[in-house]
Write a structure and sequence with these properties.
The structure is a homodimer. Chain A is 33% helix and 25% strand. The first copy, chain A, is an alpha+beta fold. Chain A folds into two domains: 5-265, Beta-galactosidase, Chain A, domain 5 (Distorted Sandwich), CATH 2.70.98; 268-706, Glycosyltransferase. In chain A, the strands form eight sheets. Chain A has a nine-stranded antiparallel beta sheet with strand order 1-8-9-10-11-18-15-14-13, covered by helices on one side. In chain A, strands 7-6-12-17-16 form a five-stranded antiparallel beta sheet, with no helix packed on it. Chain A is globular and about 90 Å long. The model of chain A has no long low-confidence stretch (mean pLDDT 95). The interface between A and B is medium-sized, with 30 and 30 residues.
Chain lengths: 724, 724
């Protein structure tokens, strides 16, 4: 069990923020932060909702909405609240069981000569997405009367203003109901709460209030339930919630555990010989599954998961490039939902392209429910002047549309499900490519298209020309589009009749788009002119800082130097691992590694995977552990300038899985063929996992002996797809 | 005489810097600042040399060299130096006679009970470019022995480090000689000095030292001479200098006055009815003629003239767009020298194009003797962090090459001298156009070329797309190139045989280059997206300043607003005055005027000329006076961030002339035809001037009665060129 349990046996007040993310529960519909039941807005309690957004009054941006907290519970003894954030405990233990998605706390307080222990266990149901449940108990070492308040807490954390108007409260015995609507669009949200096991309750202010006469050393326990509903689920919300309450805590918990078992059945990765890596990797997978949109294609995965409103609750390229590989190989329903979400939000992407003078589909840098870009043109505050600082993430980080095309094609060819193409996918590809075509500059005298004035993954260098990652990505997207048309011709020729477009431009663009090539030393220049920037590393830049949390991009310290925020060329080598040889990978990895700050949690995994490929196993392991344990340690950048950016890191979680599978197990694939050639860290005896490959579930065990698939051992394995 | 005399009858110590420029003498080879004879480096004495540059040790940039001062002279009474900067005078008067290019000072000191008057008169010879002369006298109201030191002062002002190594000193009777060489390239410079009228001299430290027994109320006078030689003039320098000395002060002065008379004969403009405007305009013309390269095609005119090393002594687009019109109509030798200087420096322009990944000729933003760009990529210091700030003047202000093509064609068609085309001009045009072609982006789906990522004249908005001024300028340059080829076909068909180039691209480019058009309100957007910037004026931005001298461009206050530094669209309407109708001019003038800071001395004249054209005569007069008196008042921006930018403003001087001629006299021209339709300010009775038009000198008098050319009066005049 130890490899499934996150545990903290003490309490430090400064960990409240970090532990809220570390002990997060979630089911894709909502995330519940790892806070104590008695906490409130100050301690960053949040029931963070996926795909539910609002713009508060006088706010600069829309962000995801946090729901009122239906698990709020606090006990008082003689007027003293048993609140971990204000009362020093005798002992405290907090755990997260990642196998079953269950959070516990046990805290011993000493008040007025009495030892009182509070225990709580809770989960956010994986089988009923609107429901959460709590079992709460109190034990004292003397007879004592305590006061209990439990109900719905409206005092919720919100980064950028208040999002909910509270329009109706109902009390129906032990059941509370709170109807809300959002400030901007008046979208409805209803929160339910019910308790079982309490009596003599006085209901007011959305709370059940009662006194409890504890008997010495006798545990007093009750259970309670929360329900959060918006959108379509509102229709039968009361019936849905009361059914859950009547099922009771034990039954809900059993269902929930079964649902998690199914999740793990497909997604677990077993490392023999390295307990620390095992826990870190499982923890990463836990987070991915906790926030995946299992039942909807109306929302993406926010860049900080469901741990809060950081980055406005919006989805970035992180989803397609860092998380989707995991889902497409372990849960193709989620993978399809995520891609369909992009199809569904294409109008926002078209609007954005037009706004910036282009055509086609320019997907949002920060995508919310409509696909309109939540990113502002001033995404950072200059800490020297406190002025908003113009950033070019929104209008110049054009690779996002190509990332989506790329991911869609990867989904199709690994799952074998090409139906998505005729369900909006081909149209999406068309619009994305047309966007790039209108964006591109044709250099007549060179007979080639170029992509000028862009921002690549390395955000410290804004407005560069011919960023290698971007150009290669777009070139591939163009080729994918051409292949996708051929595919649809075979699968569904009638469909193409409706798709009546002249495509000569696309063929020309795919052929003539310029792609930076390795120089005589095998190095691919990150963008035109990168090599002539000041040759300094992040360590040197650090010594030039005048203030903490200086933003290094924009007009900051890194922009005119070779220091980069995150893997850019190395990310490209990772993505296109079959198209660059080991020598090129080595040259570039060695060249760029010293210049890379890893100021983004998206960086380390690219370095890890490429390091594994080129035989730098120690480096690969170091970067793997950095990626896999990012949310376990919580040692990440918390501020960008003055902007809070803490929370969980699903892209790194996905990157950890990818490092294990693509890096260490050596999985790679083409349209037809899955290839596995392991290169495990020396202390790993084996690595076992399941992969969906064109509809078939493969049980794979990689070890120093070779690869075992469904029990058959080979030194290296190539699997041919079925439908080719 | 009053309209020719600049006079200051008092002394304020804080004026030393300003008066150095205001009372400047010059002859195109060198400028001598309006400082006192006893001043030294602290008081910014400079003999600023045209076209002579150096890079000092540990300096960031090359700049023009200031020569040692051969007119240095100081008198002491009982050990007290008669130094205006340290001794409060009883009275002081400084004058500059702009008709004759003669500087005087008369200062009365009171020391130890004695009234002593120092008088000095000097000039920088307009007839012998290496020579300057000084007449110096002392008068006391009591018998007194004074000590005189006069010679060469090596302690000279230099902004960016010491440029000269002093390698040899010679004393030959009353003649001193100092041989120097520059630090970077070891270029030779020799300074001579000689005195006439002194005896019992002790020569040491490059000084003549002697005691003089003054008799009460009896003037003691002597004369001295300075010579400054470098480059070709070094060869016969000693003979040249001694010849000047032997000619003596009176003879040199007479020659000098005659040379200035010739200058004024061609360039004077007479305003009847407005003494203030008359003086300001003449003063502007004086400055232009003082710094014009009369005898060389190896240097341009620095942006601060020969008043010092500001802007590195480099030539900008100012020359072609603001000064050249004056010269081409009044002194075509100078005009041709200036254009030939560009032809001579084309290798620097080709090198620059290559450096930034293009081809052809990308002329320097700051051009020195080789045409290599003296502009750095970090031209401003951020005053909040003291860090160098990346500016895009050098690599993105691409219009400069088109400005040169444009100016060259204007020179040809107004002077009728097309020989320049076969003397490197056509090749220059070719290379400039090829540069633009390689720079441009062809948007295939729009079937047009665009110019993306540029900086227009308004430097507060860097890296914009399709800047109207730039696109229109380049479009014209392309059309000029095509016309120039036709012209050469007629004039010199053999030449074109050598010029064996495929030019289809040029015709295509000229045809398809996009030019922003007026919108439904008649407004031409300054660049793509300008209209969606924050709508605030300079007055509002001023209130947002956190520190004095904040730089508003780059990441500063103006960049994301509609506030502009200087005329941009209005400059374009000025340059292409025949191609936009009055309605368009009115709409744009009215629209852009409130947003314009006039943070550059290049701005007001464009507003003045267009205002005159659209009948806003009061506005035209206001902006004319602002332009014409910029160096008279000295009320200009002295600092850009922490960079000193004071000095004279030859572009504004040229703009003042252009406003009088193109604005008020209403002169315009096409290839064939000179058109004059006056619109004088109401208090101007007439405006008289001479214009060279295709080799013929026209005497023009514009008044409310109409136009008089060579004595013949018309209500409005059109002159047809002779060689068409």
């Amino acid at each position: 069990m130890s490899n499934w349990l996150i545990k903290k046996n003490s309490f430090e007040i400064e960990d409240i923020e970090k532990h809220g993310s570390k002990f997060l529960l979630g089911n894709g519909f909502m995330g519940y932060r790892g806070t104590m039941e008695e906490y409130s807005a100050n301690e960053l309690v949040a029931v963070n909702l996926a795909g539910f957004f609002d713009l508060a009054e006088n706010s600069n941006w829309r962000e995801s909405v946090n729901a009122p907290n239906p698990l709020y519970t606090v006990v008082s003894v003689n007027g003293t609240e048993l609140n971990l954030s204000t009362l020093t405990p005798v002992s405290h233990c907090q755990t997260l069981d990642i196998k079953n998605g269950i959070h516990t706390r046990k805290t011993n307080f000493f008040v007025d000569g009495i030892n009182i222990t509070v225990k709580a266990e809770r989960f956010v149901s994986m089988s009923r997405e609107n429901v959460m449940a709590l079992k709460y108990s109190i034990t004292a070492d003397k007879d004592v009367k305590v006061t209990l308040k439990t109900g719905i807490d409206k005092n919720i954390w919100s980064i950028s203003g208040a999002h909910l108007n509270f329009i109706n409260e109902e009390y129906n015995g032990n059941l509370l109901k709170l109807d809300c609507e959002t400030v901007q669009l008046k979208n409805k949200l209803t929160v339910y709460e019910a308790v079982l096991g309490l009596c003599d309750i006085e209901n007011r202010d959305l709370l059940h209030n009662c006194d409890i006469n504890l008997k010495a050393n006798t545990e007093f326990e009750f259970t309670k339930f929360g329900g959060v509903y918006h959108g379509g689920s509102l229709l039968n919300s009361e019936a849905d919630f009361t059914a859950a309450v009547f099922a009771g805590y034990q039954q809900l918990k059993a269902e929930h555990i079964t649902a998690w078992e199914k999740v793990w059945e497909n997604s677990d990765v077993i490392i023999e010989g390295d307990e620390e890596a095992q826990l870190a990797l499982r923890y990463s997978i836990y987070h991915l599954c906790s926030i995946a949109p299992h039942n909807t294609d109306k929302c993406g995965i926010p860049a900080r998961g469901l741990s809060g409103q950081v980055y406005k609750g919006a989805a970035f390229w992180d989803t397609e490039m860092f998380m989707l590989p995991f889902f497409q190989f372990t849960d193709s329903v989620v993978a399809r939902n995520l891609l369909k979400y992009r199809v569904n939000t294409i109008d926002g992407a078209k609007k954005k392209a037009k706004e910036f003078g282009h055509e086609g589909a320019f997907f949002a840098w920060e995508s919310q429910e409509t696909g309109e870009d939540a990113c502002t043109l001033f995404n950072v505050t200059d800490i020297f002047t406190n002025r908003p600082q113009r950033t070019y993430f929104k209008d110049k980080q054009i690779h996002v549309s190509a990332d989506i095309v790329f991911a869609m094609w990867d989904y199709c060819r690994t799952t074998g499900d090409y139906t998505l193409l005729c369900d909006g996918g081909l149209e999406l590809m068309y619009e994305c490519l047309w966007f790039y075509y209108t964006y591109s500059s044709f250099k007549v005298y060179k007979n080639r298209y170029e992509l000028l004035d862009v921002v690549g993954p390395d955000e410290y260098h804004e407005r560069v020309n011919n960023n290698a990652f971007t150009n290669v990505m777009v070139k591939h997207a163009a080729n994918i589009f051409v292949q996708a048309i051929d595919k649809v011709k075979t699968l569904n020729p009638d469909f193409l009749k409706d798709f009546d477009k002249d495509l000569n431009w696309a063929y020309d663009f795919a052929e003539k788009l310029y792609v930076p090539q390795p120089n005589e030393k095998g190095i691919i220049e990150q963008f035109d002119g990168y090599f002539s920037l000041e040759d300094v590393t992040p360590e040197v830049l650090k010594t030039r800082e005048l203030m903490a949390n200086e933003y290094w991009g924009g007009h900051g310290l890194a922009s005119n130097t070779m220091t980069l925020k995150q893997a850019d060329v190395v990310m490209m080598l990772n993505v296109f691992r079959n198209e660059y040889n080991t020598e090129i990978k080595k040259s570039n990895w060695e060249f760029y590694e010293p210049y890379t700050e890893h100021g983004s949690s998206l960086s380390a995994c690219a370095y890890a995977i490429v390091a594994a490929e080129i035989g730098y196993t120690d480096w690969a392991y170091k970067y793997f552990m950095k990626t896999a344990s990012v949310d376990l340690t919580g040692n990440t950048k918390q501020y960008l300038g003055s902007l809070y950016i803490g929370g969980t890191h699903p892209a790194a979680n996905g990157g950890a899985w990818s490092t294990a599978i693509f890096g260490f197990a050596g999985v790679s694939f083409t349209n037809d063929c899955l290839d596995i050639s392991p290169r495990l860290p020396s202390n790993w005896q084996s690595l076992s996992f399941k992969l969906n490959w064109k509809g078939e579930k493969l049980n794979i065990k990689a070890s120093s002996k070779g690869v075992e698939i469904d029990g058959i051992v080979n030194s290296r394995v190539t699997v041919y797809g079925k439908d080719y």
